[in-house]
Structure formats: C-alpha cells, structure tokens
Here is the input.
Amino acid sequence: MVNPFPYSLDNKRYHTLYYHLRTRFPHRVGKAAVDAGFSCPNLDGTRGRGGCTYCRSGGTEFTESASLPVREQLERELSRIRRKWPDAGAIAYFQSHTNTHAPVSRLRTLFTEALAVPGICGLSVATRADCLPPDVLDLLAELNGKTDLTVELGLQTIHEETANRIHRCHSYAEFLTAYRALTERGIRVCVHLINGLPGETEDMMLETASAVGLLRPGGVKIHLLHILSGTRLAREWESGTVPMLTREEYIRIVCRQLLRLPPETVVERLTGDGAKEFLLAPLWSRDKIAVLGGIDRFLAEHNLWQGCLF
Ligand code: SF4
Here is the structure.
C-alpha cells in the first residue's frame, strides 16, 4: 500500500524526529542529554513539595552526572553519538528536572557554554510552564535567534482533576500562557503528554491530544505512564487503585491521538522510557520495538495517518 503521509522518508505514517532532523540539517543529529544540576519548583517548595507523584528523580537517570561540567557531559555524549554516526552533530538537551529554574545569569552561562562545544548545533530546554518569567523568555528569544532552539513543556494532560491527582502544581491555563509567550517569540515548543494517568479514560486522553493539536505545536512527546519504585505513585499502584493500560490499549490510544495531531507536528517520542532498574509496571513497556511496531501495524492495517482527523 502506498504511504499517503507526506512527511516521511521511510514508511512511517507519522512525523518522526528522524524525518525532522534529516530534512533540517545536512548531517546526522543526535540528542546529547545534560544534567545541569537544576531542581524543580514542584520539589523545592516554590510551587510544591514532593513533586509529581510519578517522578523519581526528574530524569536524572538518563544523563551524565551533574557533578561534571556541561562541556564535559556534552563531549561524552557526542563521542557516544559519533560511535554510530561519525559525522554527527548534536542538540544539547537540558533534560533533568526544570531547566529554567535558576537566575537568568546562570541560565545564560550554562546555555552559552553548551552552544560553544564543537559539534553542538542546537538547544533543547525541558521546563515547566510556571517557570518562564519575562527575563528567561527574553534570554530564550535571544538564543532562538542564534541556534535551533526547542522548549519542551511538560503538560501531560489538559484535565485539572488529573493534574491535581498527580500533583502537577500548575494549571492548564498557566500552560497556555507559557505556550503563547514562547510561540509569540517564534520559539518552537514540544509538548509532553502522558497516557495512562490515574483516573483518565481513553476519551480524556484523546481530548488532550485534540486540544494540543489545535495549538499546532512544533513537537509532541507521547509517554506511557511508568510506575517507578520509590515514587508516591508506586504506593498508590501497590494499593490497587491505579490500573495499567495493556499494550494493545496503549497502541490504539496513541494511534487515535496521532490522527488528531496536525501532520506538521513532529512526534518526538511515542513510548515512555522508564529507567529499567526502577520500573515496576507496565513491564510490557520494556519491549519498545513491539510497541513501535504495533503502532506502525495499526496505522497501516486501518489505512490511517497522523492528521487524517485533524
Ligand atoms: S515537574 Fe518534572 S522534575 Fe518536577 S516533580 Fe514533576 S516530573 Fe519531577
């Protein structure tokens, strides 16, 4: 069957990060994750304490130690990426915790240090909607004029009752304000969503995808809720009050979400990436190839593609 989806170099029926980077840069590009030692306003009491109920360590398990300088972390990441693609560049991905939760002078120093590393060709900054004051927005707008910048905003869900249950500690309205402040400055935004949050139905997850799709974001990352040991959510799950999606349900929900996203939006992730040593459930998520293959098969068998219901 001919693939009707235009933003594809292979047979994918959604707009992959691979397609985006291959058509944007003349060389291969990887993502170089950095832990710059930030905290989070939802951990340190600025907005809340204890963090989102599913948060174990704010993503630090994926990065080099924060004790290493940013330059050294990036050089190590570039070496790793270049073992696979010798001529590759990399986007410096400030991933751990909330990467704008610091005085703007410190942010300027860190981001400038990252961009000065040979081979770094862009910047991706993961943060929260409640952590973008005007001086930080001005810095991001300035950097956006110099490099390929993406700001990654954790939304997870548009539904306030779920946000309260997972202790997100900011509202959907705050997300919309931050989203507009970024996009008005021409900054590309990637929105993070989580499927399978406690209390959410399939319709609620589809509503989140539809609402986010209407914003026409530059990118989305769709995650699967992972139960990680040591989290508050793990205790809820152990008490039997947090049902898990099956792999078949997850595949169907993601595909139905993709239909509701504009075709131009880059789908930068389609599964969660829970640290394997801490993962309690769902264990089927360890087999990412089966999940991604299931999504490809579902779309092809039903002759569907990203944006066909947008
Ligand atoms: S916003 Fe991120 S780092 Fe902060 S508590 Fe929630 S998941 Fe953890």
Remarks:
- The mean pLDDT is 95.
- The domain at 17-301 is CATH 3.20.20.70 (TIM Barrel).
- The beta strands are 29-34, 89-94, 120-127, 148-156, 188-195, 219-224, 227-228, 266-269, 279-281.
